[in-house]
């Protein structure tokens, strides 16, 4: 396995461990909305949003570099 795969596995294990230890219900307030949900869902949702943002920005940068090279 390469270094990136090992780091990814360690990161996933840390996130799973952290979320399993934080299972209480929390209230999220955004403007006029109040949503009660498990803290695990909030943590995983934020992680997935960050992951998706990073992938999209990386894809955009790669696409931009390909256009400039042509």
TrEMBL record:
Keyword terms of this UniProt record: Cell membrane, Membrane, Transmembrane, Transmembrane helix
Positions of transmembrane segments: 37-59
Domain Lipopolysaccharide assembly protein A: 21-67
Signal peptide: none
GO cellular component: plasma membrane
Domain of life: Bacteria
Coiled-coil positions: none
Name of the protein described by the UniProt record: LapA family protein
Native organism: Formosa maritima
């Amino acid at each position: 396995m390469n270094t990136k795969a090992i780091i990814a596995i360690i990161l996933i294990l840390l996130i799973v461990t952290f979320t399993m230890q934080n299972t209480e219900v929390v209230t999220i307030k955004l403007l006029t909305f109040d949503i009660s949900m498990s803290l695990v869902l909030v943590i995983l949702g934020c992680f997935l949003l960050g992951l998706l943002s990073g992938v999209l920005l990386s894809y955009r940068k790669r696409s931009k570099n390909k256009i400039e090279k042509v």
